[in-house]
Specification:
The chain is α/β, with parallel strands linked by helices. Helix content is 40%, strand content 16%. A 4-stranded mixed beta sheet has the order 8-5-4-9. It has a 3-stranded mixed beta sheet with strand order 3-7-6, with helices on both faces. The chain has a two-stranded antiparallel ribbon with strand order 1-2. The radius of gyration is 28 Å and the shape is rod-shaped.
Length: 233
């Protein structure tokens, strides 16, 4: 059946482009792109045309889905401790995976030889945005953790809120810090009685904001148009 044989030959040569005349075998380089192509497409294509036999070593190779990464945020000594982790993957593999994802690669190969399909992933999107916005390098992570300035808390919290599918663990101190900022108008700060009738509502809000910054251990800049009462605030 020349037509069928031609179809088989074309399919084989699509994935095994070299021919070993001494052993009468079609071969392919063992580079990652070729192995991934055979694993993800080639085996299925060949099985449509005949029986496929593989070695034990090849049979152990897997293409895995992009993992879900959990993000942890802790506050300690006026610093944010940021941690990342996932199941069944070492820190080195996870950071290398994130690097491949940032480069928009189609797949990533783990140290054990398995492949990860780099589909769009919410948790990896968050980490990628975090690294890009804050100009963080992967080398700054040690044991899956790194420290950031406390004033980054609002940005990190906003990022996690926008990606609510991400597994995120925020400690009580961090949550209280965010709550203080979100409830500036409900703060316990009171305008001195001598200024109660003098200060306007936006000036009171300005002092509440500065007081919140002070309470949380931040510095701050009060800026608005000339003549709106910054000196009084």
């Amino acid at each position: 059946d020349h037509t069928y044989e031609r179809e088989i030959l074309d399919t084989v040569q699509l994935y095994y482009s070299d021919y070993d005349r001494d052993h009468h075998q079609f071969t392919a380089d063992a580079d990652d792109d070729t192995v991934y192509s055979i694993l993800s497409e080639g085996v299925k294509a060949l099985m449509m045309l005949g029986e496929v036999h593989v070695t034990d070593a090849f049979d152990k190779l897997r293409i895995r889905r992009t993992p879900v990464v959990s993000i942890g945020v802790r506050t300690e000594n006026n610093l944010l401790d940021l941690s990342i982790a996932t199941h069944d993957m070492s820190e080195e593999d996870l950071l290398a995976l994130l690097d491949s994802y940032k480069q928009k690669k189609k797949y990533h190969r783990l140290s054990n030889g398995d492949f990860i399909e780099l589909d769009q992933n919410d948790s990896l999107d968050v980490l990628s945005a975090l690294f890009d916005t804050m100009n963080i390098s992967l080398d700054e992570f040690t044991n899956g953790k790194m420290q950031l300035p406390l004033y980054r808390a609002l940005y990190i919290n906003k990022l996690l809120e926008e990606h609510d599918s991400v597994a995120a663990d925020r400690d009580r101190t961090f949550r209280n810090l965010i709550r203080n900022f979100e409830n500036v108008r409900n703060s316990d700060y009171e305008v001195p009685s001598s200024l109660q009738d003098t200060m306007r509502s936006y000036q009171i809000y300005g002092t509440e904001w500065m007081h919140t910054l002070l309470t949380c251990g931040f510095g701050g800049i009060l800026a608005d148009d000339m003549g709106l009462g910054k000196t009084l605030e």
